Write a sequence for this structure.
């Protein structure tokens, strides 16, 4: 996520300082040393489980913290209970209220061509499109929700309070950035119903810029011959993308963690199948994602 200056089609960007309009981020990537930086670590965005899906994530973050501190960074533990990703998602997710209306606006745009559903209800009544089982309840709720619901106003007020709290956390601890794992547990296999314990909700709701860097890998297994990549997210204050990218650049330069993936046979087969498929034809849908229709 990033804000790159004013976009008159997006009112949220209109408060952007004039100095960051049309920035050239690459020009200053190597200008910021690590020494003297203050970076917060969100304790509530870490899993404290003891299973093989969560331990590698915690170990990667511990290693990242050790590397930062060895290079002159002060890492500040942030233990505020407000920073609980699951609680934030449960209380403050706006998508259920906004999705139907946003999709209706998109599908009714006069510049869209071709034969297509004209609104949300026509799309999901057609029985031609995929509803992933894990999304069924969400789609059902979105079909009867709107931004005129009183609950939506309460959610928006909660987001504003979360944004103020996050700004206050940066100011109180004099932070340059905040770090946490991209998700609390390892990435699930292709075809799984959903990804549990994701942490992206904080940046998504507050609009604070964030960037994910390679943090490390889980131990190698038969299914993951080089291990499973684990991402670390860096979050910054609004309009500080230049600083955030400088920190990310220095982190990657010092760790050299990134390595190319090994494409397994199953992934190759799925890629080949997808390249020959034309959605939403039902025969193109993997058996891992059965067609769902709203009742």
């Amino acid at each position: 996520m990033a804000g790159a200056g004013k976009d008159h089609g997006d009112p949220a960007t209109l408060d952007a300082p004039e100095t960051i309009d049309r920035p050239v981020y690459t020009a200053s990537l190597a200008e910021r040393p690590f020494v003297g930086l203050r970076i917060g670590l969100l304790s509530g965005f870490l899993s404290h489980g003891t299973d093989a899906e969560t331990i590698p994530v915690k170990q990667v973050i511990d290693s990242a913290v050790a590397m930062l501190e060895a290079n002159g960074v002060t890492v500040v533990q942030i233990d505020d209970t407000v920073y609980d990703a699951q609680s934030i998602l449960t209380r403050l997710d706006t998508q259920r209220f906004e999705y139907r209306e946003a999709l209706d606006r998109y599908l009714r745009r006069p510049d869209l061509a071709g034969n297509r559903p004209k609104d949300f209800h026509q799309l999901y009544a057609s029985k031609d499109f995929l509803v992933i089982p894990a999304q069924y309840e969400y789609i059902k709720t979105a079909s009867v929700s709107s931004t005129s619901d009183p609950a939506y106003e309460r959610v928006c007020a909660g987001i504003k309070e979360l944004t103020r709290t996050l700004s206050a956390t940066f100011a109180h601890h004099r932070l340059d950035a905040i770090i946490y794992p991209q998700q609390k547990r390892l990435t699930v296999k292709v075809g799984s119903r959903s990804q549990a314990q994701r942490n992206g909700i904080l940046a998504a709701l507050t609009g604070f810029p964030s960037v994910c860097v390679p943090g490390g890998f889980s131990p190698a297994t038969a299914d993951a011959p080089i291990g499973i990549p684990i991402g670390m997210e860096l979050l910054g204050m609004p309009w500080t993308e230049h600083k955030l990218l400088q920190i990310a650049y220095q982190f990657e330069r010092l760790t050299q963690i990134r390595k190319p993936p090994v494409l397994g046979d199953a992934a190759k087969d799925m890629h080949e199948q997808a390249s020959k498929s034309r959605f939403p034809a039902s025969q193109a849908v993997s058996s891992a994602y059965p067609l769902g229709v709203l009742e």
Notes: The chain has one domain: 11-284. The mean pLDDT is 83. The first helix runs from residue 55 to 70.
